[in-house]
Amino acid sequence: MSEMPHGPTRALTSPRRRASSRTLFTSALGVLLVALLVGSVLVLVGTDVSSARGPSSAQAPGTSASLAAGPPPTFRVVFTETGLRAATNWSVTLNGVTENSSAPTTISFSEPKGVYPFSVTAVQGYTETPRSGTITISSSTVTQPITFLEVASTTSSGLPSLTGANGYYLLGVVCVAVAVLVGLDLVLRRRGRQRPVES
After folding, report:
1. CA torsion through residues 124, 152, 171, 87, sign
2. Which residue(s) pair with 9 in the sheet?
3. Is residue 139 over pLDDT 60?
4. In the prediction, which pLDDT does 44 show?
5. Measured on CA atoms in the order 128, 132, 134, 135, is the torsion positive or negative?
6. DSSP code of 83?
7. Which pTM does this prediction carry?
8. How far out from the chain centre does Cα 125 lie?
9. If pLDDT is split at 50, 70 and 90, which confidence band does 57 have?
10. Buried b / exposed e across 152-174, counting CB within 10 Å, b at 16+?
11. Do the Cβ atoms of 160 and 169 come closer than 8 Å?
12. What is the phi-psi region of residue 87: left when phi exceeds 0, alpha when psi lies from -120 to 50, beta otherwise?
């Protein structure tokens, strides 16, 4: 028997191979599209997370250095007083913070570099100099002296006040004077009674 020609067989198998190739190409294209879609979503998510966390160390090269530096250094501000009697209370306000002490103890604060306002609370019976001002802190301890001058306590009429030690002193003087006058009056009356009556 003679062999059948191979022409028809090639004609029958060629469409199958073409269909298989098309299916493979379609599947590959679908996988590529899915990969592109997933990659795009991941990129968008990563961008949102990075934005929420803020700039990285590569975008802000000075960030780590500034964090390591910590807060700025502080320097002492010392207020001293002269003129107050021992154990007299006095206070100073610097940059909105008030500290109290009793003479002759100093009052201290701690602040970074800058210019800060201060004021001295009035003490009864004294005038203070300066009463207020500003403190400039540069790179070392700053000392601000406060001078208190004791003043006499007087009434509106200009006479010494009868409160406190002055009041006790004046009251004592008046009592002694009255007692002396009463004693002299009694002595004189007694002598007058003892005189003999002339006939």
Report:
1. positive
2. none
3. yes
4. 72
5. positive
6. S
7. 0.46
8. 32
9. very low
10. eeeeeeeeeeeeeeeeeeeeeee
11. no
12. left
Q: Report the chain's C-alpha Rg in angstroms.
A: 51
Distance CA 199, CA 197 (A): 6
The predicted-structure confidence for 8-47, as pLDDT tens digits, reads as follows 555 445 666 666 666 766 776 676 777 777 677 676 766 6
Cis peptide before 73 (omega within 30 of 0): no
Token pair 């073409």 is at which residue?
A: 18
Question: Residue 52 is which amino acid?
Answer: A
Distance CA 58, CA 62 (A): 9
Residue 178 and residue 185 in contact, taking contact as beta carbons nearer than 8 Å: no
DSSP 104-169: T--EEEEE-SEEEEEEE---TTEEEESSEEEEEESSS-EEEEEEEEE---B-TTSSBPSSTHHHHH
Which residues are registered as beta bridge partners of 89?
102
Of residues 104 and 66, the one with the higher pLDDT is: 104
Domains defined for the chain, CATH in brackets: 75-150 (2.60.40.10)
- Tally Cβ neighbours within 10 Å of residue 90: 22
